[in-house]
């Protein structure tokens, strides 16, 4: 890594400015008195965003030296989406820019690029940085690119760095980002626990809580008292929720089960109750199960579902009929189906009767998603194989049932008591799924075929049927299914992985005419079967994504679609044309990683990897910082979060309308 002196950087900025003035596009000459958004009358900003969309690093770099601070800032933010390490040295140079917003975006881009060669220079500039907001970004960027060797500096900040609120937040977020990469230490954990203290800023406490919850391999039992206090006393629900999750890593402490049970029963926020239920494990089953029983009838369906999932995952020494009886008294079908799965998972002579009861419910159910969940429940009992197989391949039914059915067949094969005599039947079911040409069936089947634990290479040695199915797919629409098939073909042929054919920007460029017509404060109302949700579209941060959403909305594309995925205290996802999560539009978008964070009510685009976004979108229930910089944020809920909290799988998107 090249180390620049301040003088050299000043010279570079001046020289670069002259170069840019000679060759870069200029703003349009006539600027209307009122413009829709910052792109509408500025061709340079459009050019920078287009270069970002096309992933062209070299033409972007001169804009970092533009005489206009707005363009330098835009270029730095654009490089956060490109994520090219060839830009590292010039982004480091931009950390000396006279404008603090440019420095902030450069730090953000360096974190997104995650180039470990930047850490030494980042440490030098963070000690010199005078603007607290920039220092906070630089510390977080360090967490994304620091080495294990220099993690100690992030854990115990050097004395020459001011200990203000921005620094504390930056340190906490830096330790969080490092923890997601598997970099931690006992000293780092101890510091995170200290940062949970109520005198510290809310941002730091949220970061510390999430770091302790999501960093793998931690033993937090020595900190059980401090964690329990934070989980019960912190004023912010996101801190309590994160710490409740972290308490699962302190399960050996004798006080933890009672704390989690109390949170599940009494916390005022449903997201904390969900986190407490999820933190409960098999070892604490007896002392917490009464709280989980009570949660099955919680007013919030997400809490009730989390309780049912607790029993499905951890119930021991319980008669299956107990769960069957409780399930039959529940009104919420998803909670009921999950508890029926728990009933079927229990060994005992009543298992056959429980299986028949679920099959009868399946025959009587009219909601396709409920039927799918009942197939999912039957995935607990290998004796249901023939029933599930028939349901999966029933002609002329909803594709949703085929998707759930194939997933249930795979779950059946993973059961430890699945009979070896039926291995060939399972292999033939997978082959049949691939040959249907349905993207969900063939994608799921292909994933199973390459699972080394299932040893299917012997039963399905010839990949010709996979090649046939792959060649009938249409790209980029069927990219996810193509990926699954190609990985399996490579697995069977024992060859290196084939690169994914991500669609180039030229196949679907940003529609600048449409972008220019969208007001910066444009809102959309999502009318659902549970009520209305109002979004503010972020056209200035994600112009390509917003333009796509607006175009699809105007076409009525989303009208009548369903929310097909709802994960408690995480996301509600919809917009799939198939209704099962395997659908797409006929084009892909490139990821737009503007400087936005996944807080409560952030609206992001689903993807199968970077630059594969399409029509599906999700709304977060709470801060989910592990999604930051990985999924495009194109909107924010500004009204209706109480509706979002009630959404469940199968709820309908009646209509989306653009409003003023």
Q: Overview of this structure, please?
A:
The protein is α+β, with helices and mostly antiparallel strands. Among the domains are: 6-29 and 38-190, Leucine-rich Repeat Variant (Alpha Horseshoe), CATH 1.25.10.10; 507-659, Cyclophilin (Beta Barrel). The chain has 31 helices and 8 strands. It has an 8-stranded antiparallel barrel with strand order 1-2-7-5-6-4-3-8. The two termini are 50 Å apart.
Number of helices: 31
- The CATH architecture of the domain at 6-29 and 38-190 would be Alpha Horseshoe
Number of strands: 8
The fraction of residues assigned to DSSP E strands is 5-15%
- Radius of gyration (Å): 26 Å
Side-by-side strand order of the widest sheet: 1-2-7-5-6-4-3-8
Largest beta sheet, briefly?
Answer: 8 strands, antiparallel, barrel
Name the structural class. Answer: alpha+beta
Instruction: Report the principal-axis shape.
Output: globular
CATH T-level topology of the domain at 6-29 and 38-190 = Leucine-rich Repeat Variant
Distance between the termini: 50 Å
CATH class of the domain at 6-29 and 38-190: Mainly Alpha
Overall mean pLDDT? 94
Enumerate the spans where pLDDT stays under 50 for 5 or more consecutive residues: 1-33
Mind telling me the CATH superfamily name of the domain at 6-29 and 38-190? Leucine-rich Repeat Variant
Helix percentage range: 40-55%
GO molecular function: peptidyl-prolyl cis-trans isomerase activity
Keywords: Isomerase, Rotamase, Signal
EC number: 5.2.1.8
Enzyme class: isomerase
């Amino acid at each position: 890594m090249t180390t620049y002196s301040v003088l050299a950087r000043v010279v570079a900025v001046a020289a670069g400015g002259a170069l840019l003035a000679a060759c870069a596009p200029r703003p349009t000459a006539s600027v209307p008195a009122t413009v829709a958004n910052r792109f509408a009358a500025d061709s340079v900003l459009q050019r920078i965003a287009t270069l970002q969309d096309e992933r062209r690093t070299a033409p972007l770099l001169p804009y970092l030296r533009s005489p206009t601070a707005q363009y330098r800032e835009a270029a730095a933010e654009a490089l956060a989406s490109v994520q090219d390490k060839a830009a590292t040295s010039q982004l480091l140079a931009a950390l000396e820019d006279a404008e603090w917003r440019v420095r902030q975006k450069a730090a953000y881009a360096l974190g997104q690029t995650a180039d470990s060669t930047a850490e030494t220079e980042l440490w030098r500039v963070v000690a010199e940085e005078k603007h607290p907001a920039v220092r906070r970004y630089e510390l977080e960027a360090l967490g994304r690119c620091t080495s294990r060797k220099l993690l100690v500096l992030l854990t115990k900040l050097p004395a020459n760095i001011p200990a203000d609120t921005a620094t504390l937040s930056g340190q906490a977020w830096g330790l969080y980002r490092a923890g997601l990469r598997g970099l931690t230490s006992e000293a780092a954990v101890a510091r995170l626990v200290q940062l949970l203290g109520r005198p510290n800023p809310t941002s730091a406490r949220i970061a510390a809580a999430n770091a302790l919850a999501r960093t793998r391999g931690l033993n937090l039992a020595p900190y059980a008292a401090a964690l329990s206090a934070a989980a019960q006393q912190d004023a912010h629900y996101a801190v309590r929720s994160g710490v409740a999750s972290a308490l699962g890593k302190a399960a050996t402490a004798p006080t933890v089960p009672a704390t989690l049970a109390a949170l599940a029963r009494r916390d005022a926020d449903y997201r904390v109750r969900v986190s407490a239920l999820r933190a409960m494990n098999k070892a604490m089953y007896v002392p917490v199960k009464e709280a989980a029983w009570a949660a099955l009838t919680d007013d919030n369906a997400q809490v009730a579902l989390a309780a049912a999932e607790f029993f499905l995952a951890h119930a021991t020494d319980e008669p299956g009929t107990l769960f069957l009886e409780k399930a039959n008294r529940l009104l919420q079908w998803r909670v009921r189906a999950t508890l029926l799965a728990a009933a079927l998972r229990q060994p005992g002579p009543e298992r056959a009767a429980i299986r028949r009861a679920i099959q009868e419910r399946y025959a009587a159910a009219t909601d396709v998603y409920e039927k799918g969940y009942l197939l999912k429940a039957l995935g607990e009992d290998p004796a249901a194989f023939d029933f599930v197989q028939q349901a999966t391949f029933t002609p002329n039914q909803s594709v949703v049932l085929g998707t759930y059915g194939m997933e249930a067949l795979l779950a059946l094969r993973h059961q430890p008591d699945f009979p070896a005599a039926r291995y060939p039947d399972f292999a033939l079911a997978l082959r049949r799924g691939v040959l249907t040409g349905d993207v969900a069936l063939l994608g799921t089947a292909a994933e199973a075929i390459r699972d080394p634990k299932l040893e299917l290479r012997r039963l399905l040695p010839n990949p010709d049927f996979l090649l046939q199915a792959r060649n009938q797919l249409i790209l980029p629409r069927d990219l996810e299914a193509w990926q699954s098939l190609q990985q399996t073909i490579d697995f069977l042929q024992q060859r290196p992985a084939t690169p994914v054919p991500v669609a180039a920007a030229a196949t679907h460029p940003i529609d600048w005419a449409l972008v220019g017509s969208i007001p910066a404060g444009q809102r959309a109302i999502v009318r659902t079967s549970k009520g209305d949700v109002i979004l503010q579209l972020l056209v200035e941060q994600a112009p390509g994504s917003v333009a796509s959403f607006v175009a699809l909305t105007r076409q009525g594309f989303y009208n009548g679609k369903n929310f097909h995925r709802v994960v408690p205290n995480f996301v509600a996802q919809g917009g799939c044309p198939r209704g099962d999560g395997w659908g797409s539009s006929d084009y892909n978008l490139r990821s737009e990683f503007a400087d936005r964070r996944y807080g409560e009510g952030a609206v992001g685009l689903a993807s199968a990897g970077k630059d594969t976004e399409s029509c599906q979108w999700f709304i977060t229930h709470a801060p989910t910082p592990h999604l930051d910089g990985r999924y495009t944020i194109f909107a924010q809920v500004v009204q209706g979060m109480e509706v979002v909290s009630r959404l469940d799988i199968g709820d309908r998107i009646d209509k989306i309308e653009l409003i003023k």
